[in-house]
Amino acid sequence: MIVDLTAGAGTQMGSLQTSRNLSCLCVSVRGGVQGLSTVVRQVGFNSWLLQGRIRSRKIQSLCVRSSFNNAGGSSSSEEKGLLLGAERDGSGSVVGFQLIPHSVTGDATIVESHDIVADDRDDLSEDAEQKEKTPTKLTFNIIFVTAEAAPYSKTGGLGDVCGSLPVALASRGHRVMVVSPRYLNGGPSDKKYANTVDLDVRATVHCFGGPQEVAYYHEYRAGVDWVFVDHPSYRRPGTPYGDIYGAFGDNQFRFTLLCHAACEAPLILPLGGFTYGEKCLFLANDWHAALVPLLLAAKYRPYGVYEDARSIVVIHNIAHQGVEPAATYHNLGLPPEWYGALEWIFPTWARAHALDTGETVNVLKGAVAIADRILTVSQGYSWEITTPEGGYGLHELLTSRKSVLNGITNGLDVSDWNPLTDEHTASHYSINDLSGKVKCKTALQKELGLPIRPDCPLIGFIGRLDYQKGVDIILSAIPELMQDDVQFVMLGSGEKQYENWMRHTENLFKDKFRGWVGFNVPVSHRITAGCDILLMPSRFEPCGLNQLYAMRYGTIPVVHSTGGLRDTVKDFNPYAQEGEGEGTGWTFSPLSKEKLLDTLKVAISTYIEHKSSWEGLMKRGMERDYSWENAAIQYEQVFEWAFIDPPYVR
What we know:
9-stranded mixed sheet, 6-stranded parallel sheet, Soluble starch synthase 1, chloroplastic/amyloplastic isoform X1
């Protein structure tokens, strides 16, 4: 197809009449300077490429052919190929066309010289599949704000996500900064910050009744700027949130300080020689970072700062919302008129006493109301938090913002969790050679002092010992389960009553049950590799990682049908696929002792009586894509959506 466009002085370009995607354009230019300056101006500012039907299409390259008539009547020509990215600015306009030399002008002929490719995508998964075949074209300056990031600090899934997702995004061409506290507790864990460097930059932020000075430490690793906020409140024994006596009483102060420091970081830290600047995308993870979208809207934008920035709140666990007494609002560093955004009133039945008015501030509620997009760590969880049972009081607000709510399943560190190379396991194996898994099982039985029986079903549990993880259901089911020919091993720490119960049960069933109180990373790898079945009866599970680890290692998950567990574990159907079977495990609902036992017995009988079906289950789980690369592609689509609408401005 050839389109002739005459672009003399003062002449407007015609519009391209095409409904398909242009992969390549060839531009022939003849004449004087003023004509092409019109072409360049109109191409560069989107006046014809993005009109009508072609508005959503992509141009990947231009070939410029220029011809000149000299004074003697002879002519000369020159052809140049210019590679143009498919990047677009915040409004959706194509950028990068200013590469055409401004000294060439005249009449233009545009010739399509490559195949036309359709570009229709309807949802996140289809978009991810398409982007796997092409490199990232639109890049962002991304700021993760988080209370923990592995390997520096980690208590659960939040640390895993904020330690791995930034690396995956950086590998795809984005500029990524992670802002987290610099926790120092005087123990061996302090060595994790050994390679960080004091940037010699001090910021003074105003909150909690006065100025607070923070310092910034930095390490550039795996393509990511890891920035750590230093303040005396982060230097104490314990976890990031508390110690043996409970949660720290000043957590509101500690994480308010983190949010203020994170908002200053892109403006003042010269990382790699220059700052990130104002056009950033902030990812505020859980309530600890939920003040960031509010600060952008209330503290910065009214004064012309961060006008082009966007924010996404990522909910890893909505049960924790950062609720504090209403009297603490003035400590947050927000203007008085923004109180309504955080105001939260408990229902009468939830108040402490008759005189309690129930008035509080809820920072996660404010972030949900103000952020440009809302993400959860699985599609199932994004639906659950809009229900009265799963929303913990925020379900109505989240339902009202369903149009900007999405769920993306977490990925795994596939280099760390790899049965073919795992340094913690007794043997290595793969989907093509499963013989090593039996060796891992017998080695685990020997390590735990259980009878070495390769044919005996070995069931495992790894997780916190608390109500959310359904440990009470396991407790009630164990006496009946121990009547069967099985072995059971548990690894975890938490509530003292469950820790003591594990010790007592081990004494009752010495040849069948083992409980490991505490958490040990190498042991968790060996249990994942050595067990036949992994049990996860969680009451709610935003995403869950252990079931993903299990499937990658050929261990079959039996899980309660909730949140990310329901998304990632597909029920076994032996009659599907013309008898080949489908599915990667078993889910059960409702959560009860009876249903758990029934499902476990089905899994155990399948293991004992149908070895070929069991091997199919193992291989289907092992062949799935668990990488963060896959999740990062889906995050990129949400990033693009975040910049479609203007940011929230009061």
